[in-house]
Amino acid sequence: MDRRRRAEVNGRVQGVGFRPHVHRLATALGLRGSVWNDDGGAVIDLEGDEAAIETFIDDLAHSPLPPLARIDSIRWSDDVFAGTAGFSIVETPGSGGGVRLDGLADAGPCPTCTAEFDDPDDRRHRYPFTCCTDCGPRSTISAGGPWARANTVMAAYELCDACRQEFTSPADRRFHAEAIACPVCGPTLVHIGAVGTSRGTEALDRLAADVTRGGVAIVKGVGGHHLIGRADRDDTVAAIRRIKGRDAKPMAVLVADLAAAHELVALDPSATEALTGAGRAVVLAGRRADTPVVGGVAGERGDLGVALPSSLLHLDLARAVGVPLVFTSANPSGAPTVVDDAEAAALATHPDVVCLVTHDRPITERADDTVVRSMGARCLTIRSGRGDAVAVRRSPRTAVRPVLGVGGHLKCTVSLAVDDHIHTSAHIGDLDHPDARGAWERAVESLVRSVGVEPELAVTDRHPDYASTWWAQDLGIDVLAVQHHHAHAAAGLVDAEHDGPVVAVVLDGHGWGDDGTSWGGEVLVVDGERSRRAAHLRPVALPGGAAAIRDPWRMAVAWLADDPATATEVARAWGGDGHDMLEVCRWAADAGATTTSAGRLIDAVAAIVGVAGSNRFEGDAAMALEALAASTGACRATPFTVEVGENIVDPHPLIAEVVGGLGRGVAPGAVADGALRGIGMGFARAAVGVARQAGIDHVVVSGGVLQNRIVDHMLRHELATAGLTVLAHRSVPANDAGLSIGQAMIGACHG
What b/e sequence results for 630-646 when a residue is b if at least 16 CB atoms lie within 10 Å of its CB, and e otherwise? Predict the structure, then answer.
């Protein structure tokens, strides 16, 4: 007996070969009907024998999906019998209302396409835009609407006969591969350099020759332009820093394959998975000794960022040069990623740039590289980017109305909560740059267009001077201000898919507190839109306000201000008689502004130990202190002492132990390790007390300080030892890049 059934499928089902997969399952069973993409995912209509339909339902649920696909839910219903002949993939323009699904993530080259690229007898030999349903660009070429070639920039390229045959053949892996291309009908690579303009494989060869000689190239990648040059030459690295205007912040390196990555960094299974995954994340992992990467790439830090090629263009270059390559976005430091060809051409006029390698396929959505840090048993996302956009996560709370989380001021993203999902943009960056507002507005517009829903509530940070807060006022919708660390905690809850209530330990650099002072070492009790401050770091002077962020010594004297004897001891270690130090401490104590920042406490320890003259970039001092602690083989059995009172976490004993240990000749690495472990243990003890008093057995840990392996490990270990369930970040950044996600969740609770 024939029946007709309809399935509405949600998940990562667009741009991942899902429709061809459905076509193969249905035709193998002799079923009729069609499959198409709509604004909510994919829709399948089936006609045929009832037993065959039941087999199809079972196969769809249990058979292996294409590598990039994921089904979150399937809703089956009976439909009116239509008498369809055969089974087809239907190209539908859709309503134009967007795509409410987790999909359209760009994917690095798959092994099969790489083999074609390498085969001299293949018609796509060394064609850098080779892709199939398992790999290639998605969001960065999408022009909106359901995933179909007509809704991408590829619509401008008319398929040649050979590509059309592949595109329409159900047995071919390029069956409905919307980004399909070849040298005859696809985009063209162009090299513009001192010898003029060249195209195709000649462009590849000239790029490799330029970089091999030590030149710096601007290369148009999948989601933006990169600066690329040899990482084993001091002069090349110095040139890249001049072009970018970045003096000290570490840069990543590109290598051709996993074996080359293993030679540079220590990779555990989770790091290997992130490195080789479809998103081709930059992985920060422990640097091996005696690598060819010069110190100018990442300084003397313990970690090095390593990436595998995100496109066949990058793969060809990495293989041809044969050494690690500096791989960083071409935008000037602080500016948004460059996607505009004219802007890239202007940057290429810099005297240190030897060539521009570009192509005629437009980039519709900028996408930075995803960055993750290996934390041991897991990887922690530092920045979401290519491979994640637009990321969709389930929210523990269902939004009564659409909510836009507008982010903070640094590492900004925007998020849109609709029903029980939160959709998040790719990385926007810091909002200090003159071009930042345009990038932020485009990100909001793109997210709204992609999701197809207009927000009715904007959630901002409470800081009165954040640009995102100002700009949200111009959206013409309701605005809700949320405390910074409450949003951090909520972001952790989204990552863990936990509803609360929880105790939250949020260790951060800065956040505007409810009392108008700078917070950053907080133990909160959080339940949806409600947050209560239960304990915090002892407040200390913030000498110079924002200047204390740049100058860690200011925080050192602030913490020493209440203990003149300790201050004198430090002064003598620094070569003075103590008088000047006491005067500075008195000034610090009278500075007016105060902070409870755990990040600034770590800066103070770094200054006392002597590894931080200044914060040349965010987290500089903390990274130096962690690297020192990890590099000396120090005994890790005795964390320094932090006193925990009813609601105060007091690190004065820890500061005294730091000073005393250095005075006794204890190795600075051991001192650094003891201090970082003590901070983790102190906040764990405070959280355990709050949890027991509140009758809560779950603790979420969040904030930028939790990117520190030593603090993170100690905090989570002590909490777990006390019998508490620890919720830790993985895919949602613990730093400010996750704020918009937490804001969106809190807004969903607000109604």
Answer: bbeebebeebbbbebee
